[in-house]
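Box 3.1 A note on notation
Throughout this textbook, protein chains are presented in two layers. The first layer is the amino acid sequence; the second is a token string describing backbone geometry. Keep the layers aligned when reading.
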Amino acid sequence: MRLTDFWNRMHRHFGEVYAESWAKDYVISGLGGRTVEQALAEGVSAKQVWHAVCQVVDVDSRLR
């Protein structure tokens, strides 16, 4: 998954503004206790991060 696809999915699910805030503030245990931003910055693939997001929020099946 490309990073642009990841952010498109985040924006479609959370909305433009909230997606950025959520990615910055929400700690996901499946990412080793990191936020989306931290995980991406540390080299975790966008696909792995998206799967972790899908584990903690009810993402529409069309976005999975």
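Strands lie at 27-28, 34-35. Helices lie at 3-14, 16-25, 36-41, 46-56.
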